[in-house]
Amino acid sequence: MARPDGADPARRTAALCAAVALALGVGLAMALAGVAGPASSVWLRAVALGASVLLVGLGSIEALGVEPSLRVVGASAVLWLVAGVGGVWLETAERAGSSPLRVSVDEFTGTWSQRPGDLIGVVCAAAVAVWALGRLTDRMDVPAGVVAGVAGVGVVATAVAGHASSHQIGPVLVGVHAAAAAWWCGTLVALAVTVRGRAGWAAALPRFSTVALPVVMLLTASGVAAAVVNLEVFGAHGFSVLWGSGYGRILVAKTAALTALVSLASAHRRRWVPQARAHRTAEAASVRNATVEIVMMAVALGLAAGLAGTAPA
After folding, report:
1. Separation of alpha carbons 154 and 124, rounded Å
2. Which of 152, 133, 136, 140 is nearest to 56 (CA)?
3. Cα–Cα distance between 98 and 255 in angstroms, integer?
4. Can you list the pairs that 14-19 forms with residues at least 24 positions away whose Cβ atoms lie under 8 Å?
5. Three-class DSSP category at 216
6. Residues 6 or more apart from 235 whose CB is under 8 A from it?
7. How far apart are CA 290 and CA 240, in angstroms?
8. Which of 49, 167, 213, 293 is the most buried (most CB within 10 A)?
9. Residue 313 in contact with residue 244, Cβ under 8 Å?
10. Would you state the pLDDT for residue 283?
11. SS3 at position 310
12. pLDDT value at position 99?
């Protein structure tokens, strides 16, 4: 039965819009990279990224006074696990130029050995699934914050392994950027999925906004620094590398998406947060406001998934 204020239909709409936006981001990344059509493995990697980011948020909202849904945590972990394994399987087939049904065990394990970040991600997904099962069956009493930590390790490992860098500081910057993005995006999605009623948003949203400000500042600073290091924009080619390579073009698009997202978040911080704190925003309206941000976040995550599979020029 739907809630009287229409919050549940708004949540279903949010989920659909986020999925479409994630696909749009991946498609745009592949187009900018000059690829005729996104490989199947890229789509599954984007799904794995989205699920892992959501788990970072679901594990973080307990610190904001919100109890995450154990079933949503479990379903997200299984989705991450399946998409992670499936992505490597399809990449193995793509490398061999054969059907996924003809992939051998040796070929599959060989791909795993070349992608340790994906292996770490799959292990983290399995660990979160075990956590959810343990909590659902009352066999485990470990706080949800562990989910955020484990999922965060998976997100960072996958991001660092996917972004090649000739500088030692490059992976560190990419890891910090990925962790900050996962917390910001994942926590807002988790709030939209979990929080109920005006009172729930009045309590959780201001807490989220307070933490989000330094996180977004860290996200911006680390992203700019990582781009400068990985593309060497102050080298011989200057800023021409930003539009002279697929990596650079995707990076420009991702930067534009994040700039628009930060601008929207700033506007919401000035208007939506005070109104929600004062109980002047209905639950459905808060979900709709969150949805607009989530859609923009999903586009940025899709671009990030494409960026991770594109080598810097």
Report:
1. 6
2. 152
3. 36
4. 14/192, 14/287, 14/288, 14/290, 14/291, 14/294, 17/291, 17/294, 17/295, 17/298, 18/50, 18/189, 18/291, 18/294, 18/295, 18/297, 18/298, 19/298
5. helix
6. 241
7. 36
8. 49
9. yes
10. 92
11. coil
12. 83
Euclidean distance between CA atoms 225 and 136, whole angstroms: 42
Q: Which two tokens stand for residue 303?
A: 């671009």
What single DSSP character describes residue 67?
A: P
Torsional sign, CA 205, 208, 213, 216:
negative
CA distance 147 to 60: 8
SS3 content of the chain, % helix, strand, coil (to 5): 80, 0, 20
Number of neighbours of residue 67 by Cβ within 10 angstroms? 9
Condensed to tens digits (0 to 9), the pLDDT of residues 41-65 reads 778 888 999 999 999 999 999 999 9
- 128 phi, psi to nearest 5 deg: -65, -40
> 150 is written with which tokens?
């484990």
230 against 152, higher pLDDT: 152
The length of the chain, given as a count of residues? 313
Could you read off the pLDDT of 98-136 as tens digits, one per residue? 888 888 888 888 888 888 888 999 999 999 999 999 999
Tokens of 204: 């959780």
* Average pLDDT score over residue span 282-289: 92
pLDDT of the residue at 152 = 97
Q: Please give the mean pLDDT across all residues of the chain.
A: 86
**Contact (Cβ atoms closer than 8 angstroms) between residue 17 and residue 291:** yes
Q: How far is CA 260 from CA 29, 134, 292, 299, in A?
A: 17, 40, 11, 11
| SS3 sequence of 105-161 | HHHHHHHHHHCHHHHHHHHHHHHHHHHHHHHHCCCCCCCCHHHHHHHHHHHHHHHHH
Note whether 22 and 301 are within 8 A (CB): yes
